[in-house]
Amino acid sequence: MPEDGTAVVAKRVDSGSADLGEITELARAAGYSVVGELTQSREEDPAYEFGEGKVDELAALVRRSDADTLVIDNRLGPYQTYNIGQKLPEGVEVVDRFTLILDIFGQRAQTRKAQLQVELAELRYELPRAEAKASLAKRDERPGFMGLGEYDESRERDIKAQIANIKQELDAIADKEETRREQRRESGFDLVALAGYTNAGKSTLLRRLAAELDVDENEDLHPDLEATAESEDRLFTTLGTTTRRAETGKRNVLLTDTVGFVSNLPHWLVESFKSTLDSVYRADLVLLVVDASESVEEMREKLVTSHDTLYERNEAPIVTVLNKIDRIDDDELEEKKAALTALAPNPVAVSGKTGENVEKLQARVESELPAWERERLMMPLVDDTMSVVSWIHDHGHVETEEYDDDHVLVEFEARPAIVEQARAKAADLTPVESA
Ligand SMILES: Nc1nc2c(ncn2[C@@H]2O[C@H](COP(=O)(O)OP(=O)(O)OP(=O)(O)O)[C@@H](O)[C@H]2O)c(=O)[nH]1
Ligand SMILES: [Mg+2]
């Protein structure tokens, strides 16, 4: 764990100039202080990623700045990692973008699920490396090294078995969570998820929209309700998921905040976090949060990354939320909206920090949620009637409730499935026959 570690950050791009902004933030999020940086613009060198001369320069910089880690914002093959490491002072570690992100996740993982997901991603990272080692060892026919080949093949089998076990456990967790989502829907809740690039302001918006829900009374239904959703100006503040009840008007909304997206992640890493991302993929509505105080270029890139992450699995309609508008003026906002209309049609612009336009966002959530059905039910007043009436209150929105001597007329709106259940409950109320 790189608590108080020091790092040099480096990046190669094929052409143009390399931007170290995000990798520096990621290194900080992992606990490093960044003590040096270096970039190169040239095609990839198969042995060293950078040109060999540049790696010598990097090694000198690492030595001069006394860094204990070299963070490289490129996808390194196992041999490149090894070759670069050979040039560095003894004990200096080479970390690429993916291992750095895994490192952050590992430090933040608090729940069993988060820990399993990190472990799964680590094993998936290691598997091709173990396979490469095993096949090298097999090819190497020097008798003295026979044992090595056997050892590595068993490591490979071992990793595969562990991956299968973890996947099984994660699938069981995912099933349980899916059941919980269904129970919540049956209880009349709409499920809305906050998604978006890391640091966009999702947790800040969650707190802004959240209403209090008595957690104790609803423990069975809402074990993931938490009092706080931290916000901080650092990447990946949120790793697990937090669900709160949101105030939007008529509808009963449960709003879920979760891990942010980040660009250039290999497929297996995103896949490892599938059961966390399911809270987004399986929502009734997704609020895709974008930091509007950044440049149009950055916003565009982050929107593309977000859409790519959502693309394959997401089932819900998406509303784009341009956040942090307190940091820009109206003209700038309009220009950005116009420049991004293809990726972010009809966005809602808000500030989670000041609360500006939050009521517009609430109205938009209400209008985008799957439509409710309207119903009028006339029920006889018998012993169980009041419990049916209060069930309708809990699961939908009651417009009028009128009583006469032996009947009640309830007019309400609710999800179609709720309306159906209410009808069945009403039909079960049998008027007291005069004997
Ligand atoms: N000026 C301004 N700052 C904001 C606003 N919303 C959030 N922030 C700041 O942006 C930073 C990130 O906010 P978070 O709410 O933690 O963002 P997040 O999307 O949950 O981030 P991760 O959990 O790391 O993915 C914090 O420093 C917030 O205070 C806003 O509307 N205006
Ligand atoms: Mg967050």
From TrEMBL:
Please give the family membership noted in the entry.
Belongs to the TRAFAC class OBG-HflX-like GTPase superfamily. HflX GTPase family.
Which residues, by range, are in coiled-coil regions?
A: 106-186
**What is the originating organism of this protein?**
Haloprofundus marisrubri
Gene this chain is encoded by: hflX
All copies of domain Hflx-type G, residue ranges: 190-373
- The entry marks the following residues as binding Mg(2+), namely S203, T238
Q: What does this protein do?
A: GTPase that associates with the 50S ribosomal subunit and may have a role during protein synthesis or ribosome biogenesis.
Q: For this UniProt entry, what is the primary localization, expressed as one broad class?
A: cytoplasm
One GO cellular component term: cytoplasm
How does this polypeptide assemble, per the annotation? Monomer. Associates with the 50S ribosomal subunit.
Q: A Pfam family in this protein?
A: GTP-bdg_M
Would the keyword Nucleotide-binding be found if you checked this record's keyword annotation? yes
Q: Does the keyword Nucleotide-binding apply?
A: yes
Identification of the protein by name: GTPase HflX
Q: Cross-referenced PANTHER family, in alphabetical order?
A: GTP-BINDING PROTEIN HFLX, GTPASE HFLX
Which subcellular locations apply to this protein?
Cytoplasm
Please provide, alphabetically and separated by semicolons, the GO molecular function terms listed in this UniProt record: GTP binding; GTPase activity; metal ion binding; ribosome binding
Q: Which InterPro entries match?
A: G_HFLX_dom, GTP-bd, GTP-bd_M, GTPase_HflX, GTPase_HflX_N, GTPase_HflX_N_sf, P-loop_NTPase
What cofactor is needed?
Answer: Mg(2+)
Superkingdom in the source lineage: Archaea
Which UniProt keywords are present, listed alphabetically? Coiled coil, Cytoplasm, GTP-binding, Magnesium, Metal-binding, Nucleotide-binding
